[in-house]
């Protein structure tokens, strides 16, 4: 078992925790799953845009039905797919830009996510991917198409009862803030965290005004333990970069407080924040034996 299996374990545990928490928070039937975010939840939108950041080649998709790459940055299904199935919907959620699907396919679930994006527009510019504001524009287009397909009353019911999943933020730090000097010249890292939280607030508030009431926001993982960061940490003997991990913990705390604030400010909003992404990933890295027989080099060379 190697890196792809590690990711599979990581995703599976997050999925199970998310589903348990979401079921506890959401007693009504969920008619659709609507997804925003980055590569952690991209179902293939990057396949059809002009970017080098794609996963439409092997070994991606080897465990997906048919064994073919779909544009998901995973060997099989990704968290929204499992969550959709857990709510009795389709076993995989299609990408909105995939021309092989239509509004009839999107009626019970749709993905607007784009690998490489972030809260900050400057992050999406790095690899020419879909910015978060554009994901929301696609959602508005989807709303118009769904109203034409099922009628205004049914569509509005779907919008208000649907489960909205948001997963992003890592790229803002790793592909943008720590890689290029522009944002570092404008913000300290804590100021940048606050800047991103403000962007998250604006996005969620607009989504609320568009009808969204059940929203799950996922925090960032231990960024300093991701493969590239450990590989390039030569002076630290390829261990995790604790400074990056500290930023992740701090940023997650700010997002969690944001969720609490929004639930007080926006009537009828049922919103869940989960930071389990961080905890589970970190446990797998530090105690791989507890999650199966992984290569021993995972704890030293990532």
Automatic annotation (TrEMBL):
Positions in coiled-coil regions: none
InterPro entries: GDSL, GDSL_lipolytic_enzyme, SGNH_hydro_sf, SGNH_plant_lipase-like
Signal peptide: 1-28
GO MF term list: hydrolase activity, acting on ester bonds
CDD domains referenced in this protein's UniProt entry, alphabetically: SGNH_plant_lipase_like
Keywords in alphabetical order: Signal
The UniProt record lists the keyword Signal: yes
Record-stated family: Belongs to the 'GDSL' lipolytic enzyme family.
Protein name: GDSL esterase/lipase
């Amino acid at each position: 078992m190697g890196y792809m299996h590690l990711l599979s374990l990581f995703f599976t545990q997050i999925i199970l925790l998310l589903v348990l928490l979401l079921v506890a928070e959401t007693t009504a039937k969920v008619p659709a799953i609507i997804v925003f975010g980055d590569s952690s939840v991209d179902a293939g939108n990057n396949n059809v845009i002009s970017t080098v950041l794609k996963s439409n080649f092997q070994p991606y998709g080897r465990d997906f039905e048919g064994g073919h790459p779909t544009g998901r940055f995973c060997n099989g299904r990704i968290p929204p797919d499992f969550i959709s199935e857990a709510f009795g919907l389709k076993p995989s959620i299609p990408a909105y830009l995939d021309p092989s699907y239509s509004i009839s396919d999107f009626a019970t679930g749709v993905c607007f996510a784009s690998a490489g994006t972030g809260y900050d527009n400057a992050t999406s510019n790095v690899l020419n991917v879909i910015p978060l504001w554009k994901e929301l524009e696609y959602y508005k287009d989807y709303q118009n198409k769904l109203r034409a397909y099922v009628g205004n009353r049914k569509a509005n019911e779907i919008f208000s009862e649907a489960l909205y999943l948001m997963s992003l933020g890592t790229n803002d730090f790793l592909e943008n803030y720590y890689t290029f000097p522009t944002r570092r010249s404008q913000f300290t890292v804590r100021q940048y965290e606050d800047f991103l939280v403000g962007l998250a607030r604006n996005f969620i508030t607009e989504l609320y005004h568009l009808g969204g009431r059940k929203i799950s926001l996922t925090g960032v993982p231990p960024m300093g333990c991701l493969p590239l960061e450990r590989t390039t940490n030569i002076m630290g003997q390829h261990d995790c970069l604790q400074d990056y991990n500290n930023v992740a913990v701090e940023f997650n705390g700010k997002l969690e407080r944001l969720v609490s604030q929004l639930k007080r400010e926006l009537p009828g909003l049922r919103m869940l924040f989960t930071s389990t992404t961080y905890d589970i990933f970190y446990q797998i890295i530090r105690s791989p034996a507890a999650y199966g027989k992984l290569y021993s080099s995972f704890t030293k060379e990532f």
